[in-house]
Structures are given as structure tokens and as C-alpha cells.
Design goal:
Blueprint (H helix, E strand, L loop, with lengths): L1 H25 L2 E11 L13 E13 L5 E14 L17 H4 L15 H12 L4 H5 L3 E2 L8 E2 L13 H11 L2 E5 L3 E9 L13 E13 L5 E14 L17 H4 L7 H12 L4 H5 L23 H12 L2
Antiparallel strand pairs: 1-2, 1-6, 2-3, 4-5, 7-8, 8-9
Length: 330
């Protein structure tokens, strides 16, 4: 009898192992997605007493979807970048300073002082990410929300989140929807990371012949890796937001206008940037992170190897930095 029981137990364990292996096999091919939403709505005009201040908020979502379009992994972050001016419309922000995302700022972001639950942004957003796991994008899209005030028009209104997420989530959901519509197939998936490298270096002062213009460039990389850390999927993009001012320091574009990334603009960007980035993504897929980070570059930051010289002539310096950051955050 004991021998019979042992055999039954052994077969039960074997079937359990095979079942798990089958699940892992099903999960070996997934979809990696990247989406972003950029806003300049909080940019401020100059007044007689207060200088102008340009603000760009770029919300980014990287997601892994399974064969049934359920969320396996998700990473949300926001780059909130400000370009400050003096009363003469000269940039006072440090153009060379590194720009940290909200997750990178951690407690320095300062939300916990105003939060009714006393939790910082980087503490609330993981709770929202965890809630998404196992759900479809439509289920997340249909999340019940409530308007708390004008600055918080869509705060989660379900018991699972009311005590952990009091920030407004409309842009996060919108970026997730975009990510689900912008995917690549990934095999041998083990982990995923998101990198955002921001710059205000192209922002300009007012001169005698031209008004000021703030510009924020955010290079973005959603990258999937296998167990060895090799890149098995990558989606790269750049959110470029320009805020032009007139001679009086007033913003001259609609603050609520939709802002497209370079990939979303495609030919409207003015060059085949998106096609070159597609070629760069294809080249890096299957390579160790070190091969990408140590890629030989020409003086302009464009690749200087035979496989890429005819297909990628744009600067990839910031995109590589974003891939490195994605690897570090996986």
C-alpha cells in the first residue's frame, strides 16, 4: 500500500511539474508594448512680476502582455521637466543637469506632504501596477474612478485601491492603451525595464531677433531581457515637446494640444527617424547589453559599424542610455 501511495504521489508531482513547464512554455512568447502621453498644460506665461515657466509632463508605460492580452508585467513612470526663465526670458534652469523621473526622485518629489494617505508618488504607483497584473487592458481602461478636484479628475474608486492610490490615473491608463496598441513579439522573456533620459539642452533664450523657446527631449526605451540579460525585445522612441514664447513671454501654442512622439509623427517629423530606430531595435535584439552600451559611435553619436552605417545615421547616444537604464531597472 505504501508503495502504491508513493507511486501516486510521484505521478502527481510529475504532472504538477509538467503543468508548470507548460505554463512557462506558453509564457515564453509574449508581447512588449510602449506608450506615452505628453502634456505642456502646466506651462505658465510670464507676468510683470513672475517669469515664465515651461513644464512638460511625459507619462510612459512599458507593458508585457501574454497570449490572452492579460498584463504580465507593467512599469509606469513620469518625467516632469521644468524650464525656468527670468523676466528677460533667459533660461535660468541648468541645461546640463540630469533630469530625474518621479520614480527616481522618490521621497524628494514631495507628494506625501499633500497626500491624504501620506504616501509618496513612488509608493502609490507600484500599488497601481500590482493591481493591473493579471487584468486585460480593457479591464484597466474600465476602472471606476471619481473626480476629487480639478487637479484630480480620475482617482480610483474601488475598495482595492482607495487606501493605496489617491493620485489621478487618466494619463497612466491612456499610456497603457497606447502601449497595448504598439507591441512587438518577444521570445524567451524573463524581465522588462523602462528607461527615460530627459534633456532641456535645446531650450533657447530670447534674443533681439527671436523669442525664447523651451524644448524637452525624452528618449525612451522599453526593453525585455532573457534570463542571461540578453535583449530579446526593444521599443525605442523620443518625446520631443517644444514650447515657443512670444516677445511678451506668452506661450504661442495650445497648451492642451496633443503632442506626438517622433515615432507617432513618422514622416511628419521631417526625416525617416522612425525607420532608422526600427533598424536599431532590430540590430540590438538578441545581443547582450554590453554590446549595445559599447557600440562604436561616430562624432555625431551615430553608429560606426558596417551593420548600421547605411541604416542608422541618427544619434543614438540618448537611446542607448535609456536602454542601459531599462536594464538597470528590470
Amino acid at each position: 500500500m505504501k508503495k502504491t501511495i508513493s507511486i501516486v504521489v510521484a505521478f502527481s508531482l510529475l504532472f504538477a511539474i509538467l503543468a508548470v513547464a507548460g505554463c512557462n512554455s506558453a509564457q515564453s512568447t509574449v508581447k512588449l508594448g510602449l506608450g506615452s502621453v505628453t502634456s505642456i498644460a502646466k506651462s505658465k506665461d510670464a507676468t510683470a512680476e513672475v517669469p515664465a515657466s515651461a513644464q512638460v509632463d511625459t507619462t510612459v508605460v512599458a507593458v508585457i502582455l501574454d497570449s490572452k492580452d492579460k498584463i504580465v508585467d507593467v512599469y509606469i513612470d513620469t518625467a516632469q521637466t521644468t524650464v525656468k526663465y527670468d523676466l528677460d526670458m533667459q533660461v535660468t534652469s541648468d541645461k546640463s543637469a540630469p533630469i530625474k523621473s518621479k520614480k527616481e526622485l522618490g521621497f524628494d518629489y514631495g507628494l506625501s506632504k499633500r497626500s491624504e494617505i501620506g504616501k509618496e508618488w513612488h509608493e502609490q504607483i507600484p500599488a497601481f501596477e500590482d493591481w493591473m497584473i493579471g487584468k486585460t487592458v480593457d479591464e484597466v481602461k474600465n476602472l471606476k474612478v471619481k473626480e476629487v478636484d480639478a487637479s484630480h479628475p480620475s482617482v480610483p474608486d474601488i475598495p482595492e485601491l482607495t487606501s493605496s492610490v489617491t493620485i489621478t490615473v487618466n494619463d497612466y491608463i491612456a499610456a497603457l492603451v497606447k502601449a497595448a496598441a504598439n507591441t512587438v513579439e518577444v521570445k524567451s522573456y524573463d524581465s522588462m525595464g523602462l528607461g527615460i533620459i530627459g534633456s532641456i539642452a535645446s531650450s533657447g533664450d530670447a534674443t533681439e531677433t527671436a523669442p525664447a523657446k523651451a524644448q524637452v527631449d525624452s528618449a525612451i526605451a522599453a526593453t525585455a531581457f532573457d534570463k542571461k540579460g540578453n535583449i530579446v525585445g526593444a521599443i525605442l522612441d523620443t518625446a520631443q515637446a517644444s514650447i515657443p514664447y512670444d516677445a511678451d513671454g506668452k506661450v504661442t501654442v495650445g497648451k492642451n494640444a496633443a503632442i506626438k512622439t517622433k515615432k507617432e509623427l513618422k514622416e511628419d517629423y521631417g526625416m525617416n527617424w522612425y525607420e532608422q530606430v526600427d533598424a536599431f531595435e532590430e540590430w540590438m535584439t538578441g545581443k547582450p547589453i554590453d554590446d549595445v552600451v559599447n557600440l562604436k559611435l561616430a562624432d555625431r553619436g551615430n553608429p560606426d559599424i558596417p551593420e548600421l552605417t547605411s541604416s542608422v545615421t541618427i544619434s543614438v547616444t540618448e537611446l542607448i542610455a535609456a536602454v542601459q537604464e531599462a536594464y538597470d531597472k528590470r
